[in-house]
Amino acid sequence: MDSQTKQYIDDLAEKVILAYDISIPIHDIDNVVQCIGGSVEEDPNLDMFSDGAARKEGLFGFCIAVSSSQPQIRRTFTVAHALGHLFLHMGFRTDWELWERQDGSAYSRFCSSAAEYQANAFAAALLMPREQYGEAIEEYTHGDSVDVTALAAFFHVSLAAAINRGRHLGYL
Ligand SMILES: [Zn+2]
Q1: Where would you tag: which of 40, 41, 86, 100 has the fewest CB atoms within 10 A of its CB?
Q2: Cβ 92 vs Cβ 127: under 8 Å
Q3: Domain match, 74 and 150 both
Q4: Domain extent for 138
C-alpha cells in the first residue's frame, strides 16, 4: 500500500471517529455500528476465520455479518474491518454513486488482497487512532521498553494488531 493510501485511510478513520463522536478505546463495536446507522448480525454459518461481510440495507443502512464463534477481540476487529469495506469500497457516506450501485441483496465480497489490506488498515486506524496510540505509548513505556501486551489490552486488540499499528505509526 502506498503512503498516500495509508494517509487517506488514517484520515478517513479519523473523520468517522469525529463525525460519530466515537470514544476511544472502543468497548462495544456493535454500538459504534449502530451509531453509524447499521447493525451487526451473528451468522452461525460463517466459520470463525471468515471475514466480516457488509450488506446494504435500505438506502442509508447496512448490516454486518460475523461468525458467532469468534473470540471477542477477533470479532471486534472483524466488524471494524467490514466497516473499512463499507467506507472504502462500497461508498457508504463517501461516494454516493458507488453506494447507490450496491446491491443490497447480497453481502459484498472483496477478494483482492489490496482491498483486504486497506480494510485491515482502516480497522487498525479506527481502533487505534494515531493520537490516542501516541498517548498510550507514553503511558505504557517503562524505561526503554513498551508494554505492548498492556497497550493491546487497552485498545481491545490482539498483540499482533497493536504491534502492526505501532510500526505503521513509527512508534515501534
Ligand atoms: Zn475483507
Answers
A1: 100
A2: no
A3: no
A4: 128-172
Distance 90 CA to ligand 1 centre (A): 12
- Residues 119-141: b if buried by 16+ CB within 10 A, e if exposed: bbbbbbbbbbbbebbeebbeebe
- Distance (angstroms) between ligand 1 centre and the Cα of 22 equals 22
Tell me if the pTM is above 0.70: yes
Tens-digit pLDDT string for the chain (172 aa): 899 999 999 999 999 999 999 999 999 999 999 999 999 999 888 877 777 789 999 999 999 999 988 899 999 999 999 999 999 999 999 999 999 999 887 666 676 789 999 999 999 999 999 999 999 999 999 999 999 999 999 999 999 999 999 999 999 9
Distance from the alpha carbon of residue 52 to the mean position of ligand 1, in angstroms: 7
- CA of residue 71 to ligand 1 center, whole Å: 18
Please give the tally of structural domains in the chain. Answer: 2
Q: Are residues 33 and 117 in the same domain?
A: yes
On whether both 104 and 142 belong to a single domain, the answer is no
Return the SS3 of 92. Answer: coil
Ligand 1 centroid to 172 CA: how many Å? 26
**Looking at the structure, do residues 91 and 166 belong to the same domain, yes or no?**
no
